[in-house]
Amino acid sequence: MSIFEKQSRIEVPVKELFNWHKSPLAFERLTPPWEKVRVVERQGGIQSGGRMVLEIKQGPFRRRWVAVHGDYVEGSQFVDEQLQGPFTKWVHTHRMLPETETTSLLDDHIEYQPPLAFLGEVAARLYLRRKLDRLFAFRHARTRNDLKRLHPYAQQPPLRIALTGASGLVGHALATFLSCAGNQVQILVRRPPKLESQEIFWDPTHRELDKASMESLDVVIHLAGENIGGGRWTAARKDLILKSRVEGTRFLCETLASLKHPPKTFICSSAIGIYGNRNDEILTEESAAGRGFLTEVCQTWEAVTEPARKAGIRVVNVRTGIVLSSLGGALAKMLPPFQLGLGGVIGTGNQWMSWISLEDLIGVFHYLIHTKDISGPVNAVAPRPVTNREFTQILGRVLGRPVLFPLPGFMVKTLFGEMGEALLLEGQRVEPARLTSSGFSFLFPDLQPALGWELGR
């Protein structure tokens, strides 16, 4: 029998720590991006008798893990025990203990028996222990980081929040975070809503939306839009990219403005592409718009939020930079060649990359929900942008791989056309002026720790 234990001090009262773990989506927040785990079924919560079925991907194989909760003690403890899965035995005791009135102790205690008897014990010593160390270092850090963000608002009542684009990379992570904060998060979907769910039907193409479900919301967050990096920018695709943002946003804002009880806040996604290609010029929210297709998209996108603003709704346009996540977006596309040692500088390497970690972007949305004196454009980027050459060198260093294979500019234009030129060869040196001046705190202001966190290095 092997035993693993991890303890950490969390700078919040034990009640806040325990309540965070009671959220139905806490497990998703605690799953590292590099772990291929999917919740297949969930019955009940962490109280005794609750049950969870997971699907775990190990190489080409998928394993099923069935766990049941027991030994629940409100405010201090719950246990999950494996009924079916890769271990002969697995009993995980979660304890949250008060340390002072304002701090608590998070204690994870696991008793486990690997399969294959002696060989399993050898594997446990050589491999499983390191895997558990890495896993629980992430889990405790994420718990600490989330509760640090949530603690200043712990005494405020839960909010009713509607969210579009929840199936996307940012939307899924944001919905999970906001739910763990105790809010009622209602997802706008384009299919029939699931029974007994908080989903709201909408079809922006045909201008259909369940208006009754939108009454008396506190916040609406709009992230939906066609992926700009999903293929070459043909005339038809550019039209789709523009319409998916402009028409959906216009319809949503007109609907919100027409409600008897409209939301207090409307937060709409935008992008730093609004500034165009500006070389080394330092850009803030006060900078003028640039030129090009992305500039046109972003300007029109932000302009059609005007009906909501005129109705007295606080409108925030979040101009997002390159979002770093191994689960999707630019970083996920870069990883395969870099992991094989085939990565390198793109074009001249001098183009600026204004990036933000997914963790900090979620924090930005949460901060903007609660910071009621901020409206209008907000640059959602880390405070220290890098050139493509710097990004390439740092990513190679984090992965422990050489970066010897450049991608010349002419090949980018040949392979990807206008899309490749705009997204890979051009750039913006953007600063988050409004966030920093208002007191927002970044978890990852520097690139190397951000990549290390996301990649588990």
Describe how the helices and strands are arranged.
Blueprint (H helix, E strand, L loop, with lengths): L1 E9 L3 H9 L3 H5 L6 E7 L7 E8 L2 E13 L3 E8 L4 E10 L5 E10 L3 H34 L9 E5 L4 H12 L3 E6 L10 E4 L4 E2 L1 H4 L4 E4 L12 H24 L6 E7 L10 E2 L9 H11 L2 H5 L3 E7 L1 E3 L4 H11 L12 E2 L1 E3 H13 L5 E5 L5 E2 H12 L9 H17 L3 E2 L2 H6 L8 H9 L2
Parallel strand pairs: 8-9, 8-12, 9-10, 12-13, 13-15, 14-21, 15-19, 16-18
Antiparallel strand pairs: 1-7, 2-3, 3-4, 4-5, 5-6, 6-7, 10-11, 17-20
Helix pairs in contact: 4-10, 6-7, 11-14
Description:
The structure is a single chain. The protein has helices at residues 14-22, 26-30, 117-150, 169-180, 211-214, 235-258, 293-303, 306-310, 329-339, 358-370, 388-399, 409-425, 433-438, 447-455, and strands at residues 2-10, 37-43, 51-58, 61-73, 77-84, 89-98, 104-113, 160-164, 184-189, 200-203, 208-209, 219-222, 265-271, 282-283, 314-320, 322-324, 352-353, 355-357, 376-380, 386-387, 429-430. The longest helix is centred in the first third of the chain and has 34 residues, at 117-150. The protein has two domains: 2-152, START domain (Alpha-D-Glucose-1,6-Bisphosphate, Chain A, domain 4); 156-455, Rossmann fold (3-Layer(aba) Sandwich), CATH 3.40.50. It is globular, with a radius of gyration of 23 Å. The strands form five sheets. It has an eight-stranded mixed beta sheet, with helices on both faces. It has a seven-stranded antiparallel beta sheet with strand order 1-7-6-5-4-3-2. A two-stranded parallel ribbon has the order 14-21. A hairpin with a 5-residue loop joins β6 and β7. It has 457 residues and is α/β, with parallel strands linked by helices.
